[in-house]
Amino acid sequence: MGTTAADRLTPDTGLTPDTRVFLDHAATTPIRPAVLELVIDTMRLGGNASSLHAAGRAARRIVEQSREQLAAALRANPSEVVFTASGTEANNLALKGLFWAARDADPRRRVILTSGVEHHAVLDPVRWLAAHEGCEVVYLAVDREGRVDPAQVREILLDRADEVALVSVMWANNEVGTLNDVKDLAHTCAQFGVLFHTDAVQAVGSVPVAVDEVRPDALTLSGHKLGGPIGVGALLLRRDLRPVALLHGGGQERSVRSGTLDAPHIAGLALAVELAVAEQPAYASRVGQLRDLLITGVQQVVPDAVLNGAPGSGRLPGNAHLTFPGCEGDALLMLLDAAGIMCATGSACQAGVPEPSHVLLAMGRDERSARGSLRFSLGRSSQERDVDALIDALPGVVARARRAGQR
Amino acid sequence: MSSERRRIVAALSGGVDSAVAAARLVDAGHEVTGVHLALARDTASDAPGSAPGARPSRGCCTAQDARDAARIADVLGIAFYVWDVSEAFEREVIADFLTEYARGRTPHPCARCNERIKFATVLNRAIALGFDALATGHYARIEPADPATGRGPTLHRGADPGKDQSYVLAMLTADQLATVVLPLGDAHKDEVRREAARRGLTVAAKPDSHDICFIPQGSTRAWLAARLPARPGRIVDGATGRILGEVADLTGLTVGQRRGVGLPTISSDQQRRYVTAIDVATATVTVGALTDSEVTLIVGGGAQWCGPAPGVGWRGRVQVRAHGETTPAVLTDVGAGRTVLTCELPVRGIAPGQLAVLYEGTRVVGSFTMDRSAPGVAPAAVAADVVRGVSG
Ligand SMILES: Cc1ncc(COP(=O)(O)O)c(C=O)c1O
Predict the structure, then answer these.
(1) Distance between the two ends of chain A, CA-based, in angstroms?
(2) Which CATH architecture is the domain A13-31+280-405 placed in?
(3) What is the DSSP letter of A81?
């Protein structure tokens, strides 16, 4: 018998999982037990949803039921759901696919409007289009809280709507938690006949997301941010849109996204979305209170800590993002990690090189405060004792990080 | 190694030496945290830099090293972080490297990095953050302090004569040594590679890193040429004073260098010609036979002593390049900002800007940066092995 990856897992601290405090739900929140069961059961079932025999039909039934379930939860049409292997893939499909399609239809349409606070899964595809595909990127300014003003979009569109291929503005910011007025943004774009995409990866399950009200042309969501599996996402894409495919092959998902459908993950995603949306009001009120407790608690023990992003209902219920003057964020993170408390500085970077958060820089903060910040993100399993543990550990940790200073 | 459990930052370069060093500390029961240092970053190669979220790209080897370091930490089961010290590195090491070359000198960036970054910025940060010590994979030995005699910790050559790195650590003070751990001081390189393989570290066969981490191997002059204005100069024969030719850019030349000057390397009298001096002020590169660069008098800046400062008349051995041998020498003057050493045998090819390290047996006594050298008067005693040793 070979060893499995799970057998090889060794804890890297002496702490057991239940003495650790997990305040990084925005990175990945634990999978819901019911979802895990469903994924395993569906995986056992097997079957290729494109096959014409009984096994294929069984798999196809699961995929299509999941499509309906997911669409219903978000008040979208099942035919609008394109399953992908991640939020990143859904963003790439929306940005590259819709850019190419718009440019092919009208060569003048080569402008993308987006904000400087987007996740790298939006910024980097856009930068790539600019570097390789002749795209002109117009970065929308954000205010001190990280919000895009729809009036600014209107102004630009008044001027050059017929050059714009796509507008992409995130629903909720993954770092500072600020919510955008996506309804206004979507309606503004619609008035000018310009496509609007929103990265709603952090929003779904945390705030009400009703596609029939907001009417984005494309909306990205991801499984692992809402209690679903890692490695599955979806793009809700208006039925009549034909983005150029990133993946060519067997023609699945309206030929927009080829590849054998991953029924187990798709089933898990749909169940997770359904449960998250159903629980959203209760979740938002409970976790929002915990968040406020966390913020006031932190500011009591570290009076000069500054909250970044919008206050109160203007931000994600689970997000608390704070600058600790005189500290390096990565020193704080390391010291908290050693104390069994897990949080984040910005979006995780592959090689682990800490960069000042581009989000805070775009919000007008200087590099120092951008480097001296931490994101605490709460989720379904968060409890008051998690907040208490943080508040207990924080004064010592901040004092120590201050001694180490800032570069 | 002491038996108490200490909180140690293990610097993980992504190479085999620091990996095994960290592994040994984990085995010894210490609480080890792996840290990879992001030193150089290449912002110049970064495309539209003003776009939000544009990441300064690092050289690909550096990013691979960071991944290797992270994987090593995973295998060892220790926490791992990247510490970005690139600003300090830029300021303290790269800027100095450029200034020194612009002055016609030959800096030693690794020694400088050890002095100003690894065992200063990084060590101080580790201590401030509550760690007890910093560990690296250098091949050198630290003798702990002896409370009975009041002697502080001392630095010694590593046990592997082929790998000994005490030269590049020579500027560490006793205070610094007290919070530094060098687990490979007693090790031999081949044994370290075997140990890495036995431990399942995939970097076991990774080649040793080359000298200057921020410059692609072998392209120092091109790297400098891209950053410093070209300085055309004359090449002068040191013996006759005759002008032998022109050099388009003398920046990056080094005393003792033979190739790449732009002259036929063998003159009509069948003698190989070496750079014996570089004078930026007069834009002159002096060349001559190897024996023309022989000196016995070395003058440098203020010395950094590791332990009590020796006085004039101190007698020991001096090493003038990282992988050279030693020569007997006497300290003939010491003062603030000035050190003068008289070698008992001639040494060749001393490049201003390089380090002279003084030893007593295996122990590092101190070091200073060499500024000038002169033939002086050589004592008669000549040991053949020493001459061979210093001819570099
Ligand atoms: C706002 C936002 N967009 C996109 C992503 C990427 O999603 P995925 O991890 O599924 O590729 C994330 C996750 O970090 C996110 O927070």
Answers:
(1) 51
(2) Alpha-Beta Complex (3.90)
(3) E
Q: Please determine, for residue A388, whether its predicted confidence score (pLDDT) is greater than 80.
A: yes
Query: B332 or B264: whose pLDDT is higher?
Result: B332
Name chain A contacts of B81, Cβ cutoff 8 Å. Answer: 330, 333-334, 352
- Mean pLDDT is lowest, of A56-65, A190-199, A230-239, B55-64, for B55-64
CATH topology of domain B229-292: SH3 type barrels. (2.30.30)
B103 in Cβ contact with B279 (< 8 Å)? no
Position A105 pLDDT exceeds 50: yes
Partner B contacted by A403 (CB < 8 A): yes
Atom number in ligand 1 closest to CA A89: 11
Distance A170 CA to ligand 1 centre (A): 11
CA dist., res. A393 & res. A19, Å (int): 14
Question: Which residues partner with B330 through β-bridges?
Answer: B315, B342
Average pLDDT over residues B133-159: 96
Domain boundaries, chain B: 7-198, 229-292, 294-391
- To the question of domain A33-275 being in CATH 3.40.50.720, the answer is no
Give chain B positions within 8 Å (CB) of A353. Answer: 38, 41, 58, 66, 82, 84
Give the gap in angstroms from C-alpha B130 to the nearest C-alpha of chain A. Answer: 7
Closest-CA residue of A relative to B59 is A351
For residue A18, what pLDDT is reported? Answer: 61
CATH 1.10.565.10 fits B294-391, yes or no: no
CA distance between the termini of chain B: 36
With a 6 A CB cut-off, is A233 part of the ligand 1 pocket? yes
